[in-house]
Amino acid sequence: MISTKSFVQQIPQNVAIAFDQRLGARGLSPPVQVDYRKWLRYYLDFCTRYRHPPADRDSLPEFLRKLSSKGQSLERQQTAVASVQIYHELLKGGLVAGGDTGWEACLERLREEVRLRQYSPKTLQTYRTWANTFRGFLDGKEPGQVDSEDVRGFLTDLAVRKKVAASTQNQAFNALLFLFRHVLEREYDLKDKVVRARRSRYVPVVLSRAEVDAITGRMHGAKALAVKLLYGCGLRLAECLNLRVQHFNFDAGILTVRQGKGAERSRGAVAGDVVGGFETAVGGPAPVA
Question: Which among 81, 76, 78 has a CA at the least distance from the CA of 59?
Fold first, then answer.
């Protein structure tokens, strides 16, 4: 059983009032309402201890795993789920639960908007990371008070003080652009006021054809096929790892990449020896006469 002494997190007053009103509207008995309030306190305390955003629905499965590891019964877990779901419904309806919950609700909306557009989980992670970094730069300023000048200051700080690469600054720019347009729903006008990070003037060093042949000549099996695809077709690592048999047209020697970067579809020619290697891998070794 979980000790109540280990939980110190209290429900913010405005949340407690709205939560009790929702419980009363559902006709729950007083003892059941006490249980619901208890599980909400446990959930908020868990999120504080383990640094999970309470407004993020992905925090609930982590909370349930913790309850399961503590030996909580399925019935108690179901009560905890029902309690947290009411809390999330209140946040979705516009309730701000004090402290940093305004940002937590903002991050939850960011997650929903990214998933609505079917962006990759990696893009979601990147956007959330930059949103949290921006939040730290603002030093307590709430989302409703943020404007383009805050973004200008943040991007300039990245270039001047932190001396990030131009690609890193551009990534932050795009993440905050998405945050402003689709989450905060306000203008994002910087008017070229941002100090841009300096682009590298170095020409990248690449392997020669002979060096690539030397490397692939020492590789065998699936790893050799993967490296040849990465080099010959210009695939990204994630695209290569997600390939399936149906992506190949062996007769035409064509590879179709679906759900690549930006959810785009692209096609490319595959060398004959790579096609042969895949045919062997899929069909197995030729039968012995």
Answer: 81
CB atoms under 10 Å from CB of 282, counted, come to 10
Distance CA 86, CA 24 (A): 12
Q: Given 1.20.1440.230, 1.10.600.10, 1.10.443.10, 2.60.40.2890, which CATH number is that of 209-283?
A: 1.10.443.10
Spans of the chain, pLDDT less than 70: 1-9, 93-101, 191-193, 197-203, 258-269, 271-273, 275-276, 279-289
pLDDT tens track for 139-185: 877 787 788 889 989 999 998 888 888 889 999 999 999 999 888 88
- Hey, which residues does 194 pair with through a beta bridge? none
CATH of 7-98, one of 1.10.150.130, 3.20.20.150, 2.60.34.10, 3.30.420.40: 1.10.150.130
pLDDT digits (tens, 9 = 90+) for 31-48: 899 999 999 999 988 888
Q: Please give the DSSP secondary-structure letter assigned to residue 203.
A: P
- What string of DSSP letters covers 129-186? HHHHHHHHHHTT--GGG--HHHHHHHHHHHHHTS---HHHHHHHHHHHHHIIIIII-S
Q: How far apart are CA 231 and CA 216, in angstroms?
A: 10
Cβ–Cβ under 8 Å, residues 268 and 228 = no
**Rounded CA separation 82/75 (Å):** 11
Q: Tokens representing 86?
A: 């009411």
Spatial CA neighbour of 16 closest among 46, 35, 40, 52: 40
* The pTM of the whole model exceeds 0.70: no
